[in-house]
Amino acid sequence: MKWENLLADGRFGESQKAATSDKARSEFEIDYDRVIFSAPFRNLQDKTQVFPLPDQAFVHTRLTHSLEVSSVGRSLGKGAGEILLDKFPILQNQGVTASAIGSIVAAAALAHDIGNPPFGHSGEEAISDFFRLHPDGRLWEKHVRMDQWADLVNFEGNAQGFRMLVSKQFGLKLTYATLAAFTKYPRPSLIVQRDIARKSQKKYGFFINQLTDFEQMCGVLGIEKTSSDSWMRHPLAFLVEAADDICYSIIDLEDGCTLGLVSFEETMELLKPILKGKFDPEKLKNRTNTQNLGAFRAMAIGQLIRETVGLFGQYEENMRKGNFDKALTDIIPSAQALADISTVSIQKIYRSKVVLEKEAAGFQVLEGLLSIFSRALYHHFYQSELFSGQDKSVLRLLPEDFPMKGWGAEVNPYPMLRALVDHISGMTDKYALNLYRKVNGISFPGI
């Protein structure tokens, strides 16, 4: 792969010759603005990052997390851009700047969680479990292809995000470079054999009905295949991944400390190996724990950014050749410190009572919503003798643009099921909970 192709500013959904009339912003800055003003991004303000929103102490939502990941991503991208411009003078001749590369990573990082459903990662598992285990979900297996069923029983927020970013419904029309940097897992859900040595194959990055879109993107950017059904990562995807890893490692720990799940003293001990000689106990004096926590969190993130940029410069050629496929944060000098933070976070944060309660509620809510809508659709199109008044009322709650025509025994319902999952996964936590209560008669509008 060549950088002059990988950084092409062609835009998805437009001819490559289509030029923007806005000369004040680069194409990649326009990507950033389109994401931040989009409805799916705004919805992240009421989607759980780790903790349900408490009454007092501030903790992060998906939206604040995404903004912070984007900020770190911009720094990583600009640092990497300076290395690339020094190494490849042809990029300067094409008008590429370090800021432009920073904008690609920032925009991709801003959108990195845009496909996540309500209730965090447990929401992904709840959607998967519905089709895999629930009687109302399993009814659909015989009506779809094997590769389509693999999508449904393994719901993936990254693939949902790619679907949303290329969907005509939202009209974002991002650049190919930003879309590729967004795609950390460049493969479909069903492949012949997963290469466990490649981090990019740990999950999947697009649903089977977006295969043509993905292939179009790879063709424009010159992204090559690693096998018959998998592709190389765009090198900037490693930076998007690193930005996310850095933020959730450090900031989830900060939230855990703020909520009293991890002591301030233990938090400082976990950050010290990252800060190394910059950790000065004297600086802890005459400041509150909150002030110290914020200061040392910022210093730790800065150090991790520097280490990651240095490693990117070391391995970028191997990335382009497909010989490097690891998480950068797994091999930077502070990798062991991050692993220690992860161990504590799993024990004291991710398995804390408040988080587990949220996850359990999320399973109940999403399974319940999927069941009642799915059952109504199945009765309407496949078991009309069971189609009830309740089913009719439920279907009227679907969005106005929901595809309600053309389905039946001889028609593959996968596109309709994708639309249903779009609807459910796009809900905010509160909306999903309130709708679940209403359709189950637990609460009533206006009462």
Automatic annotation (TrEMBL):
It comes from Algoriphagus aestuariicola. It comes from the Bacteria. SMART domains: HDc (SM00471). Keywords: Hydrolase. SUPFAM superfamilies: HD-domain/PDEase-like. The lineage of its organism: Bacteria, Pseudomonadati, Bacteroidota, Cytophagia, Cytophagales. Transmembrane segments: none annotated. Residues 58-258 form the HD/PDEase domain. This is DNTP triphosphohydrolase.
